[in-house]
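Lab notebook, bench 4. We co-purified these components, and the gel suggests they stay together. Before we commit to crystallization screens, I want a quick structural picture of the whole thing.
Request: model the full complex, all chains together.
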Amino acid sequence: MYNFEYKNPVKIIFGKETISKVAAEVPKNAKILLTYGGGSIMKNGVYEQVMNALKEVELSEFGGIEANPHYETCMKAVKIVKNEKVDFLLSVGGGSVLDATKFIAAAALYENGDPWDILVKRGKVEDAIPIGAVLTLPATGSEMNGNSVITRVSTLEKMAFSSPKVMPQFSILDPQCVFTLPDKQVANGIVDAFVHVMEQYLTFDVNSPLQDRFAESILTTLIEEGPKVLADRKDYDAAANFMWAATMALNGLIGAGVAQDWATHSIGHELTAFHGIDHARTLAIVLPGVMNIKRESKKEKILQYGKRIWGITEGTDNEKIDAAIAKTVEFFESTGLPTTLPAYNVPEESVTKIVARFEKRFYKLGEKADIDHREIEQILRDRL
Amino acid sequence: MYNFEYKNPVKIIFGKETISKVAAEVPKNAKILLTYGGGSIMKNGVYEQVMNALKEVELSEFGGIEANPHYETCMKAVKIVKNEKVDFLLSVGGGSVLDATKFIAAAALYENGDPWDILVKRGKVEDAIPIGAVLTLPATGSEMNGNSVITRVSTLEKMAFSSPKVMPQFSILDPQCVFTLPDKQVANGIVDAFVHVMEQYLTFDVNSPLQDRFAESILTTLIEEGPKVLADRKDYDAAANFMWAATMALNGLIGAGVAQDWATHSIGHELTAFHGIDHARTLAIVLPGVMNIKRESKKEKILQYGKRIWGITEGTDNEKIDAAIAKTVEFFESTGLPTTLPAYNVPEESVTKIVARFEKRFYKLGEKADIDHREIEQILRDRL
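Here is the predicted assembly.
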């Protein structure tokens, strides 16, 4: 096991009818900005529940945050935060709203230049406006970490940052929010959480059986509970198990002390940046390619994954790896997510464009930092 | 799944040669009281490492904290804390030292009467001196929770309290501390962590597969890595895996949203109070009795445990439960811990004494609060 530090102070409030608890969690006498997305919280009653709970509180609103939230949108909110001297941000929505809120929180107090530097130059987040979250969609794990991914529309760049300063003070997770989600968002959430686990699990072995078993626990739960949620949106227990699994998939726990990959995410971000494909769908496309091309360096873990998750024990190592990839593809497709580039009308030329972008960057991807632009090309061509 | 709240802000610093990091973690200009036990930290070099790291810091010492730490000892430290205006407590040792330090931290600022009330009358801990920990022994999980168990010698009472106020600010876990532990302490640690998991896992089913899989992950890790540690004390990876498993066994994670039992602990505490038997050993005695006597109400989970942990699939339900109990006993005994009362020279009269004590208390034990003094008698007689 590697040496590691782990600290996750996010207070989770989980369960049925918990949204009203927001009133006790927001700071007293704070000027609060409520951030949200395209308005689904109006239709599913979450907005009303939050507003009822916060009747007595001074509140401004900033709606219209899009999926793959835009830097440009965030900067509008930053202006409001500064002008209105907002001292608490309450994110009501899914991972995109929360990611945007985290960037707004950091950008509003960033004093070392252009806030864009936080994303492209790893500008250090010294301070941030405190955040709380009411989560409406299990997927990204943003409710229990300090990560955020932001897209700059003008340059088609999708970039991430991470800071303990933007971890939510609290996150309220009411699984009943799942009841009104469309199939597509549930499927995206299942695959997003699944691939978060895979990025921290399917690496080289550092002798960390507990982290491995935890990762497999989350994968198994997603495989068993995800389809139940898709089949019956009102199955509370399935929704709750799915929601908690998605949170656990990216709260630092299973990644503590082990190697981490994140190549699938980095390559996927480019597919979103160039083609606007949903984040989770880009992961469903790319992961099988990474597994196929990196089958040698990830061999032990892919074999372990195949055996423990899918019961694959027959054949040569290469046959077992093929079967593990096939099972993964089959699971993603069973949720309704296609896993090839043509299924999303991505032309071959896009591969060239994306590869050229990686060629210009100085870093390589993967847990061994050995995936260069040539291997990225192989991975993408594998999915044509 | 039950509704739950979960917050665990303890900073874990884990790995090889991490003890020197204590210097960066203790507050600047604080008056620190270093608490420790019987002196093993002098022999294994941990004391020296801590003192070297804290050369520049104003430090007092309070040694001699015993296993199953005494209320009477703690109150001596409370006097020092008050007289010397200590504002940070640094626990260097195992779970007993840390439990004592937590009680000292709470008692020093307790203003609602006799600090003993914290333990016997659930006196609320409004504030506590901040704590840091250097952990030398994987076992109790005290390094990542707000729990503490204290014994009052004068009345032979062993009582617990829990408060977020006494969670350590940081805990440093260097698995190399395991290298110098005697067999007995390793075995105690394995069984202690194992039973912590069982108390949160072997209850009635609330449909929480992820918590179940996490619990099984820890049990499996203890079963696989524990014997490696016993066989080769210098196996760093085994020590690290064991240490991290013990922390995860009682940091709130696997208990979030599920039923919890703790009958084994409550009954075990009386065996320690009356006979001074090591805490873990009392658990090794009592758990098989609880499993046997509560085989009906815990049936589904015992069967699941037997199947998933020990591969028990043959026979009637009762035969499978018998086999699961036998496997558990066998595992405990394989670490060197006897599991019956006579093996510790506990006479039959003690059963009567302990049962009489429970009869006087107004509460029942177990996740269903249905274990009364008559069932406690059955459980203890099962172990004669």
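DSSP finds 15 helices and eight strands in chain A. Worth comparing against the SEC data before the next meeting. Residues 181-382 of chain A form a domain with the Dehydroquinate synthase-like, alpha domain fold (CATH 1.20.1090.10).
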